[in-house]
Fold:
Amino acid sequence: MTFKSFQRVHLLALLVCDLLTGVFAFILAFNLAWAINQARDPYAIWLPFLPYVKLAVIWTFLNALIFSLGGLYSKRPWGGFSGEIGGILTGVSTSMVFAMAITFFFRNIEFSRLFFITAWVTAFIMFWFVRGILRLIRRGMFSAGMGIRRLMLWGSNDIAINLASLYSKDPWRGKVPVAIINDTAHDGSGADIPFLTSEEGSKWLNEGKVDEVIVTRHDLPRESLYQLAQICRTNEIALKLVPDLIEVVAGQLSVEGVEGIPMVEMGNNLGRYYPQLVKRIFDLIIGGLITIILLPVLGICAIMVRMSGVGPILFHHMRLGKGKAVFGQYKFRTMVDNADEILRNDPELMQKFREGFKLQDDPRVTPVGKFLRRYSLDELPQLFNVLKGEMSLVGPRPIVESEVEKYGFFADALFSVTPGMTGLWQVSGRSDVGYEERVKLDLIYIERWTLLEDLRILLLTPGAVFGGRGSY
Structure:
């Protein structure tokens, strides 16, 4: 079993176990609270069981959502047990407060305060116990060689040799060294793994032979580090660095210590399977609701476009999506029918267009089109791209082939995720944001993605759109 397939199975097991644990914790808490109440007053009348079962189901899914927001299905399960315990305590406490608030809607039932105290303690202990068992099972599978990360150490110094020896001797850690990048003269003594050149190492990364890279060099040039980070991001490979390199890496970092050797991991939240799955489910649910709500607006816009002149209602513009896949981006037609011909026949207009791929006071845009563009109503049909999976509600904007060179080697980061209808740079200035700043904001979004960040951007989008700032 490869690491990526093991990771998916493990995350699914975590989710299923958490759902079952949540329900059983509530049932056990109900019985414990009943027993305590009976011991205190044998003649006391206890509350009916069914409302607690309903509350248990609601709380269980709510708790799983809070666990997800807290990172318990992405990074922490691979880290220290102490960090996971803190996440469990925070998640259970938060979801229990929400559960108590939900009981307000059960107007005919009075829920026991003793039950909630018992449920909080029971849930925390059961989640801690079950996840501890899963952690032991995972260690056993690692020791048996199942689901192990293939580790590449970028640097032939003593730290790289020591880490290679450590992981080779302790397979339960879940990593097996497969190569050391030898950028300086070295005879390879002290490690029973191959030494490669930087070029060979990059080839291994692109061929999918590595799951994680640890950079132990302190003198790696900035450009080389950026290129390495880009390869890792594109191929969904974890990248960790020794602390001396923090100042040259932009993005979200998390700290990890291994036998006294501190490391930081470069953020790449959308490069993991679980966040991609959560984001897709979020797009289907929220995107579907938004589409239903905006159907009357879509209908009115379609009528306006039809009355604006000759030409189709919808315009399909070919864009590059995830993995450079070409797809037709839906938009309401905002230009005259012979827009391309007008652009080809005007060299000055064509030059301005090539500089920024947008034109202020574009003579090809119809009066209706100007209105639709000002408030981004022309982009509403992209909701159907979202439902088809070609786009996401939030993400880097899809680009055309001729724009790729403007992104340089950062283009690979753009193509590693699904493009979005709106994004961080859109709510930061829309078309007024230059390419350099746009690239920076897109990279920050990819590295620091959370579901809450998507919600924040979606909430900010109407203000940016109706303000009309940077739109033309």
Summary: Residues 104 and 217 are 58 Å apart (CA to CA). The longest helix spans residues 3-40. The domain at 149-267 is CATH 3.40.50.720 (Rossmann fold). DSSP finds 18 helices and eleven strands in the chain.
